[in-house]
Amino acid sequence: MKHVSILIPQGHSSLSNIEGTHHILSEVNSFRRSMGQEPLFDVQLVGLSRANTQRNGLFTVSPDLLIGEVPKTDLIIIPALFGDVRSAVAENSPFLEWIREQYNNGAEIASFCLGAFFLAATGLLNGKPCTTHWRFANEFRNMYPEVELLDDRIMTEAGGIYTSGGAYSYLNLLLYLVEKNAGRDMAILIAKAFMIDIERHSQSPFIMFSGQKDHNDDAVIRAQEFIEQNYTERITVDELLSGAALSRRNFERRFKKATANTVVEYIQRVKIEAAKKNLESTRMNINEVMYGVGYSDVKAFREVFKKITGMSPIDYRNKYNKEAVAL
């Protein structure tokens, strides 16, 4: 039987991550029993104290065991931790060494949503791919530059470490873990029982792009503001360099470092974000939207739109604007 430790952090964490994981893995056991098979998961809540209050005292979670009572586990689940990240890491620092020790002894680790921040504090994500809620991608990159953040992914896997993207995408990672341990048929059964879309792989359709400006590079900020104010036009790097005593190579290096995007990527993402808003809230057809954000080549617009959102413009409009007339 595979021992699963669902962490119960101190402070404010995601109760849905905790209860949902416990419920789904327990249901796998129930289905297996009904099929005459042995249970697969031994699921326990593991904490730092006997009782943990959540949501300003509205709920109390009582762990089954404390970390000192778990000499070995097979899978560690880290729920999303909310509030100030550094404070949450400090408050829960006793978990860090325990997680490292368990991983070195063969345990796998899965973090959900903002739990990636806490997992990264262990150092185990260094040099590995990771995802988290897309809204906090810039903050994550600033705090953990040595981690390869893939903020468009629903989930990542590397070396026995799994991460999931924002909010309820943790369900997709749980399905993946069920499939890996209990087989495809069980994963499909769980997906149907809990009505989870089993084939979701990307956060891209949900991302609302907002340029990273939490940096101190004035030349880059001026360029970002110029792009955001003139996205309907064709923008060149030379225009962005106007008035700045920088070489093109130095400017492009600084821009990528500050925003996590190349200049071309940033321009594309600003244009596509404006296109998404028009597709969501107006009755403009695809060509009108395309021209409105500065594209004149239909093929190029569709390719960039799909690369950024994971969907075609018409599929995006049909999904998020039910009042639009499909053309």
Describe this structure in a few short sentences.
The chain has 327 residues and is an alpha/beta fold. It is built from 14 helices and 11 strands.
Overall description:
- This protein has two domains: 2-206, Class I glutamine amidotransferase (GATase) domain (Rossmann fold, 3-Layer(aba) Sandwich), CATH 3.40.50; 218-320, Arc Repressor Mutant, subunit A.
- It starts with a strand and ends in a 7-residue tail after the last helix.
- The radius of gyration is 23 Å and the shape is globular.
- The mean pLDDT is 93.
- The strands form three sheets. A seven-stranded mixed sheet has the order 5-2-1-6-7-11-10, sandwiched between helices. A two-stranded antiparallel sheet has the order 3-4. Strands 8-9 form a two-stranded parallel sheet.
- α6 (170-182) packs antiparallel against α7.
- It has 327 residues and is α/β, with parallel strands linked by helices.
- Helices cover 46% and strands 13% of the residues.
- β8 (129-130), α5 and β9 form a beta-alpha-beta unit.
- It has helices spanning 15-34, 85-91, 94-104, 115-120, 137-143, 170-182, 184-194, 218-229, 237-241, 248-259, 263-281, 286-292, 298-309, 313-320; strands spanning 2-8, 41-47, 52-54, 59-61, 65-66, 75-78, 108-111, 129-130, 148-149, 155-158, 161-164.
